[in-house]
Amino acid sequence: MILILNLFITIVILYVFAILPRFSRRKEMFVYRQTMFAHRGYHCIERGIPENSMAAFRAAIEKGYGIEIDLHLTRDGQLAVFHDDTLERICGQPDTIEDMTFEELKTCRLSGTSEIIPSFHDVLSLVNGKVPLLIELKIPDSSEQICRETLAQLDHYQGPFLIQSFNTIGIRWFRLHAPHILRGQLSSDLTREGHKEAWILRFMVKHLFSNFLGRPDFISYGLNDLPIVNVWILKHILHVPVAVWTLNTPDMLERGRQHYDIQIFERQHENY
Asked: Residue 85: which domain range?
């Protein structure tokens, strides 16, 4: 019986150690509670405003919404604002951002419009602290170069921002090299769909067992994959802020506002 009790206590201690967030910057996270972030900008392709475009970012600023963006690192070490792993869906070609230089990317057009893939520098210059930024790092492998370049540009930026990533390696890098920056662990039901990453890694991130590496300040989770036990414990017992995505219906928007701290949405069913 004592052996079983000791084993149980050990498992509980390891469990708590694995999912614990960082607590020391909690007051700074309160600033972002009930902030609504326009997912990839306030885009509407029917009005010629593609996602992750300067036009979408200008529209979000005009509405006073925070802006969620995605960063890739180009072959020549530049930060490009783009979501997908390849250019196929948005630009009609199979290449990846990582295999192209930024000059080559300038020839690509977003969703058949005149808009081009923005640089991170241009987005920072446009936003200039007017609204908060939620910056997702796209890290397709174990390279940390994107983290170094992102930090180099953010060091000169004065506005409010958060960083997040599915890849805990990136979150851990900011924990070690830029602890002053608020960081979030992105997750969803990663074991449900096919991914190139090992299943055990996806399982760890899905259940937030990788938090011991990154010690995030907030959790960013797909609303359709909630509730999940560990998110509930983090939010309701440890009072960790939880962002939810992507809210693209009135019902999802209401659920996000009512039950979670930060809302990442696409369109709010209003006119531009």
From this structure: 25-265
Is residue 17 assigned to a domain?
no
Helices (H), 94-159: 102-105, 120-127, 145-154
What is the C-alpha separation between 267 and 272, in angstroms, rounded?
Answer: 9
d(CA 170, CA 168): 5
Question: Where in 90-236 does DSSP place strands (E)?
Answer: 133-137, 161-165, 183-187, 218-222
Task: With respect to residue 272, please indicate whether it lies within any of the assigned structural domains.
Answer: no
Alpha-carbon distances of 172 from 96, 140, 163, 177, rounded to whole Å: 25, 15, 12, 9
Domain count across the chain: 1
Domain membership flag for residue 271: no
E strand or H helix at 39: strand 36-39
Q: What is the DSSP string of 158-172?
A: -S-EEEEES-HHHHH
Q: Is residue 2 part of a domain?
A: no
What DSSP designation does 114 have? S
pLDDT digit string, tens, across residues 82-141: 999 999 999 999 999 999 999 999 999 999 999 999 999 999 999 999 999 999 999 987
Q: What is the CATH number of the domain that holds 129?
A: 3.20.20.190
Whether the CA torsion 214, 158, 154, 106 is positive or negative: it is positive
pTM attached to this predicted model: 0.95
Residue 50 CA: distances (Å) to CA of 42, 46, 93, 120, 248: 9, 9, 16, 17, 16
Q: What is the DSSP letter of 64?
A: T
Residue 66: which of 265, 272, 269 has the closest Cα? 265
With both helix axes pointing from N to C terminus, report the angle between 145-154 and 120-127 in degrees, rounded to the nearest 10: 30
Which among 93, 75, 67, 76 is positioned nearest to 84, based on CA atoms?
A: 93
